[in-house]
Design goal:
By secondary structure, the chain is α+β, with helices and mostly antiparallel strands. Among the domains are: 261 residues, glycosyl hydrolase (family 31) (Immunoglobulin-like), CATH 2.60.40; 105 residues, Golgi alpha-mannosidase II (Immunoglobulin-like). The protein is built from 15 helices and 50 strands. The protein is globular and about 85 Å long. The termini are far apart. The N terminus is likely disordered. The protein binds 2-acetamido-2-deoxy-beta-D-glucopyranose (7 copies). This is Maltase. One of its GO terms (biological process) is carbohydrate metabolic process. It comes from Phascolomyces articulosus. Keywords: Glycoprotein, Glycosidase, Hydrolase, Signal.
């Protein structure tokens, strides 16, 4: 949420003068291998020494002696680490707040890749064995290794098919020539092509129909250039630690499996988390929240969870209540009411804590000394919604004890179902420090001041920041203004965040941990919730993330706008997060900033109903956008949410797969059909798993969609009408009147469904429906995962495979979960007319023709063991 008019302020002090620095540093002398590479437990190690020549100290202090470690970690994962021999540079910590590296004892026996290197100048290639394709190639490009500047380039084909590097609001395929993606966590209202909240230096590339992945494990600010024929990394600290993912089958989904093997698998949500969510910033009082909850009910639109933004707080302080508009007892009553109706409630918590001296959480943290420090040892003070604030230093050994207490007391007080952690880039409204000893709860917000006054304050902050020095004791680096200025949309690094010279525990400058701040909060907050209720799957939604955060939290794509381009681009952003291992992700439906129009909100409710994480959210000054406010929007919401709720068992099964394997819940067509060039740029249609294809309207006034269909049969979700596609290249125009989102089911799939109700619980209380969508050979296959829907530990689960072949439906697999509802209905689409009768365990099953499908109703097939149903 929030950062409203901040965007305008940024434009005011930036004047858009960002250096791009596309070029490679061709004058750099490079390095040579010194001595013989020697074997290590898991690969090779060799020293590098700087060649003599000009072009040293380009942007920092050149480091002469390096060590390269090459680890053949698994058959599909290669690790190449280039580090300073003296180990002074700060890598991503090998902890939960960074990335825990796998502990390996021996190299992989067989690999799908080769690693080749040249001695002088040192360069390396990663080769995909299956077709001898060189997928990463630093030869012919300089290696630069300075304390505050690392540069490495790989050759790639012109107009390469690269997806990833984020977080950024941009089309999915990142084929811009001579363009830059900056990775540096930043609170910014989703400007296109600029660095925003999270840091994910990871990309997938598809070449000749085969995919591989490249991850630079580095948490420093960086620019990544997708120029013609190359990708260039320019990084302002740390080391170059690359991981390459080369699955044998070359499938994009296998690349994601390999990537999440390293960074951690996405967390498993509880079933209720897949229900519909509603929030707004700007609920005026508790009655306003109740009005929204009741409005959904009156309009028969499903609502699972209500969210309360910072509105409920007293002066926007965490863990407090506005005594007039959101008194404590009214919030407790709301939570009770939600639970009584089998609904849920979530509130926001920001990391920044008011320095107001009568504020107990501050007092407690101050006593425990757990806040980020200035480089002179005093408490670092920034400004966030509650005025002047301090920031927990998650790396402090007592931070967990501090945070556990605050979080657990808060959860208990309101009996909350989850937490929403925002502003954790960390966002702060000053340029670095706001000064020392500040305790005002209501200082002016700079963007509300006249320009001149704001500029004056900004200049004072700049002077105060500079007065603290550009470095920290014992460190000679220029942390405030490194010579290589990454292209951060925010300008100077400390702009609207903690000073780069502020200190974390162990005297680590914020400069080195900035991109990990939100990630560490995600990890710690999950631990707190697990201490609160050890066997409940924690629900946390976070704005800032890093590689691996998906094992702890979900993510929403931040402060977008009520505009058609943001509606459309939300699909690409969700694709990115599926690829970054954060499968529980979604965008603010109907848009956050600006006023949503009725047609926009209608289309967005249709699309958002299918997001992995689905929530309508709005900002303070914007007009209301509850879906029940417009009749067409309400109708579109009812229809699209009926699709979502019918698909809940399918979604839940996909989330389990994502949690176990790492594949996305939403998938771009190109990830499922990497050999079809026509899909390379399609970031508008999306697959839910492999079997459901949605083709939303993303353009204003459009009433049809030109849709691609992969080869095969696709059945219209609503009418069962079959569309046979002979080539993915052809486009089909689908009718999409205002309240309709086209959805198709892949012939060859068996989907477990439910009868949609207003609540997840009620939806699950009815029997299962099996939808058998036959392919051209009259066959189909599908999967259903069942557990108790919310516990961390699952002693009994069912993992059932359904196959349909030669007129026989077979259910096999594991039937550990005994309490599941039975199968009540089987529906076959695409069946030849020759099916006349059916039988199950010798009993005849009644078949009827309904809307082009063959339907067996009122069945009573328990999901406690194998069964077959014969159709003749
Ligand atoms: C990056 O590419 C996009 C799309 O081509 C373009 O709109 C944008 O201006 C480019 N940005 C820069 C900084 O060149
Ligand atoms: C809540 O806010 C609304 C809108 O400002 C106002 O009309 C209403 O009177 C308020 N209700 C209470 C109980 O304060
Ligand atoms: C601290 O908070 C209280 C209660 O909100 C407020 O009255 C007081 O002015 C605040 N103190 C400062 C220094 O802002
Ligand atoms: C960054 O800081 C420097 C040094 O104080 C200042 O001269 C420059 O204007 C700032 N740049 C931006 C984009 O604010
Ligand atoms: C948005 O709606 C609000 C209230 O409904 C109104 O005050 C505001 O002027 C509108 N903004 C725009 C940009 O139309
Ligand atoms: C959509 O229709 C409205 C009303 O006719 C028109 O003002 C607007 O420009 C149209 N938008 C587009 C993108 O064509
Ligand atoms: C900061 C930013 O990207 N603002 C854009 C938000 O979306 C609106 C509508 O598309 C644009 O006009 C803004 O420029």
């Amino acid at each position: 949420m929030k950062s409203h008019i901040l965007v305008a302020v940024a434009a005011f002090y930036l004047s858009g003068a960002l250096a791009q620095n596309y070029d490679v540093s061709s004058s750099a002398p490079g390095y040579a291998i010194k001595g013989k590479p020697h074997r290590t437990k898991t690969g090779l190690e060799f020293p590098l020494e700087l060649n003599s020549g000009d072009g040293v100290d380009l942007y920092g202090k050149t480091i002469n002696d390096l060590v390269v470690n090459v680890d053949f970690e698994t058959s599909d994962r290669l690790h190449v680490k280039i580090a300073d021999k003296a180990a002074k540079q700060i890598p991503v910590p090998d902890t939960a707040f960074g990335l825990e590296r796998p502990k390996l004892r021996k190299p992989a026996k067989k690999t799908n890749y080769d690693f080749k290197y040249t001695d002088n100048p040192f360069g390396f290639q990663v080769i995909r064995k299956v077709d001898n394709e060189v997928i990463f190639d630093t030869n012919n490009y300089p290696l630069v290794f300075e304390d505050q500047y690392l540069e490495l380039t790989t050759g790639v084909p012109d107009d390469a098919n690269i997806y990833g590097i984020g977080e950024v609001t941009a089309p999915f395929r990142r084929n811009n020539h001579q363009n830059v993606t900056t990775v540096f966590a930043r609170d910014a209202g989703t400007p296109f092509y600029e660095n925003i909240y999270g840091s994910h230096p990871y990309y997938n590339e598809i070449r000749d129909g085969k995919a591989h992945g490249v991850f630079l494990l580095n948490a420093h600010g960086m620019d990544v250039f997708f120029a013609e024929g190359r990708v260039t990394y320019k990084v302002i600290g740390g080391i170059l630690e690359f991981y390459f993912f080369v699955p044998k089958d070359g499938k994009p989904n296998s690349v994601l499996e390999a990537y999440t093997d390293l960074i951690g698998k996405p967390f498993m949500p509880a079933l209720w988390m897949l229900g519909w969510n509603h929030c707004r910033y700007g609920f005026k009082n508790i009655s306003h929240v109740n009005w929204a909850v009741d409005g959904y009910k009156a309009a028969n639109i499903p609502l699972e969870t209500i969210w309360v933004d910072i509105d409920y707080m007293d002066h926007e302080k965490d863990f407090t209540f506005d005594p007039i508009n959101f008194p404590e007892e009214s919030m407790i009553a709301l939570s009770k009411k939600m639970h009584a109706n089998n609904q849920r409630m979530i509130t926001m918590v920001d990391p920044a804590l008011s320095t107001n001296d009568s504020y107990a959480p501050y007092e407690r943290g101050h006593e425990m000394d757990v806040f980020i420090k200035n480089n002179d040892g005093t408490e670092f003070t920034g400004q966030v919604w509650p005025g002047y604030t301090v920031f927990p230093d998650w790396w402090h050994p007592k931070a967990a004890e501090f945070w556990d207490y605050e979080i657990i007391e808060w959860m208990k007080l309101l009996d909350l179902d989850g937490l929403w952690i925002d502003m954790n880039e960390p966002a702060s409204f000053c340029l670095g420090s706001c000064g020392s000893g500040k305790a005002n709860t209501d200082p002016p917000l700079q963007w509300e001041l006249p320009e001149e006054e704001a500029a004056k304050i900004h200049a004072e902050e700049q002077a105060a920041l500079d007065a603290m020095g550009i470095s920290v004791p014992g460190d000679t680096r220029n942390l405030l203004y490194p010579n290589y200025a990454i292209n951060s949309g925010g300008g100077n690094l400390s702009e609207r965040t903690a000073s780069m010279t502020s200190l974390h525990y162990g005297d680590i400058p914020h400069y080195d941990y900035h991109n990990l701040y939100g990630h560490a909060e995600c990890s710690l907050t999950r631990e707190s919730l697990l201490k609160y209720k050890p066997n409940e799957r924690p629900f946390i939604l976070s704005r800032s993330t890093f590689a691996g955060s998906g094992q702890y939290v979900g993510h929403w794509t931040g402060d977008n706008h009520s505009s058609w381009d943001k509606l459309k681009n939300s699909i690409a952003e969700i694709f990115n997060f599926q690829m970054f291992g954060v499968s529980y992700s979604g965008a603010d439906v109907c848009g956050f900033f600006d006023n949503a129009t009725e047609p926009l909100c209608t289309r967005w409710m249709e699309l958002g109903s299918l997001y992995p994480f689905a929530r309508n959210h709005n900002t303070l000054v914007a007009s209301s956008q509850e879906p029940f406010l417009w009749e067409r929007t309400a109708e579109a919401s009812r229809r699209a949410l009926a699709v979502r709720y019918a698909l809940l068992p399918y979604y839940y099964t996909l989330f389990e797969e994502s949690h176990r394997i790492g594949t996305g819940v939403w998938r771009p067509l190109i990830f499922e059909y990497p050999e079809e060039d026509a899909f390379l740029d399609n970031d508008v249609q999306f697959l839910i798993g492999s079997n459901v294809l949605a083709s939303p309207v993303v353009n204003e006034n459009a009433t049809s969609v030109d849709a691609h269909f992969p080869e095969g049969v696709w059945y219209d979700w609503y009418t069962n009408e079959a569309h046979v596609s002979t080539s993915g290249k052809e486009k089909v125009t689908l009718d999409a009147p205002m309240e309709h989102i086209p959805v198709h089911v892949r012939g060859g799939a068996i989907l477990p469904l439910k009868t949609p109700e207003m609540l997840v619980k009620d939806t699950y209380a009815s029997p299962y429906i099996l939808l058998i969508a036959l392919d051209q050979n009259g066959e189909a296959e599908g999967r259903l995962y069942i557990d108790d829907q919310h516990s961390v530990e699952q002693p009994e689960t069912s993992d059932i495979t359904f196959t349909y072949k030669h007129g026989v439906l077979k259910a096999s697999g594991n039937f550990g979960y005994k309490d599941a509802e039975k199968i009540g209905t089987i529906k076959i689409v695409g069946a030849q007319d020759d099916i006349k009768s059916a039988s199950c365990k010798g009993d005849k099953v009644e078949l009827v023709n309904k809307d082009g499908a063959l339907v067996a109703e009122d069945l009573d097939i328990p999901l406690t063991g194998r069964f077959t149903v014969k159709f003749n």
